[in-house]
Amino acid sequence: xxxxxxxxxxxxxxxxxxxxxxxxxxxxxxxxxxxxxxxxxxxxxxxxxxxxxxxxxxxxxxxxxxxxxxxxxxxxxxxxxxxxxxxxxxxxxxxxxxxxxxxxxxxxxxxxxxxxxxxxxxxxxxxxxxxxxxxxxxxxxxxxxxxxxxxxxxxxxxxxxxxxxxxxxxxxxxxxxxxxxxxxxxxxxxxxxxxxxxxxxxxxxxxxxxxxxxxxxxxxxxxxxxxxxxxxxxxxxxxxxxxxxxxxxxxxxxxxxxxxxxxxxxxxxxxxxxxxxxxxxxxxxxxxxxxxxxxxxxxxxxxxxxxxxxxxxxxxxxxxxxxxxxxxxxxxxxxxxxxxxxxxxxxxxxxxxxxxxxxxxxxxxxxxxxxxxxxxxxxxxxxxxxxxxxxxxxxxxxxxxxxxxxxxxxxxxxxxxxxxxxxxxxxxxx
Length: 430
Known about the structure:
The structure is a single chain. The protein has helices spanning 16-51, 54-89, 94-118, 126-151, 155-178, 184-198, 204-211, 223-255, 257-269, 271-294, 297-328, 330-333, 340-369, 373-398, 404-429. The protein is mostly helical. The chain has one domain (4-429). The longest helix has 36 residues, at 16-51.
């Protein structure tokens, strides 16, 4: 029986039909999980939208913005270093894994604190804040398991983990709806349970190491990793987060969660693209890193092209589904008090934003695999300044909806910088 890894390497020297089948198999498995998670989150958001006050939908959407940032931060701090090991040696040894797992526990505690503090003045019950914090913590822990699954050529484990998460969320939402117990506290508990259950897919050996990492892994061993690599990758993630989500923080802070609720609808409809763009790199970085490490740059560049094709395909399908919902089933995503014309404008701007991100993400992931974290961080800082300034300007001058144009400006700046960095890397390495 052929190895699954055969489907996870860009191929050349074969028929166009064979290449298309391999590429479809490669990306379908990777996209299945994020799309399933997106569907589960979409159902949860729709239930919150229709059954709870507008402010609660805004708070739920705000949490679903903060938690991915926590996961991205964990990816930068403990996921990115695994790629360097793969590029240099072709694998990640047990001592490295243990060190990263210990650091991941510390990051999970920090993620809990970030989400809990963000909700401190929200008016939610203490138990709800604690549960949302636990959800952020568990999702951060889960991230390293997904990264390691791809790094060790076991993509099925990541897909199964995503499937478990989605099934638990969907089943739990159905049960809560049947007994009329939809509420933020119960949804927070359900999300935490789903994140915990999904980690079973990584296997008992990995989980034992995560709960009690091997003795050779120490937090002190992480210090040089932080000094030489992850401080730049984390700075890049933090700056990028402000670039792409400045509207979420500014609108929620200055105009309240109710005002953010309508903006969140556009992000909700485009969420499949967002999740896929955050999940595909887990598969692509190891491939690109191995290609760079072996000097086979043609294979790495093929991965960029195929990554972009897959992203465009996901964006196309997502736009068709969003259009169908807004045209034929508008009450699914809109309720009384939401302006339909304004919602269509917001979705159109979100489509443009996601299109820009689909274009730049493959090159950004390649540069990460090449270890260019400091130049990427500098590019993110510049775009962050543009996004923050423009978003605040549009918000105060024209209102919450217009603040999205500040995100467009920041995204365009970041995309231009990444393309420039990639061209420079190609010229330098031939």
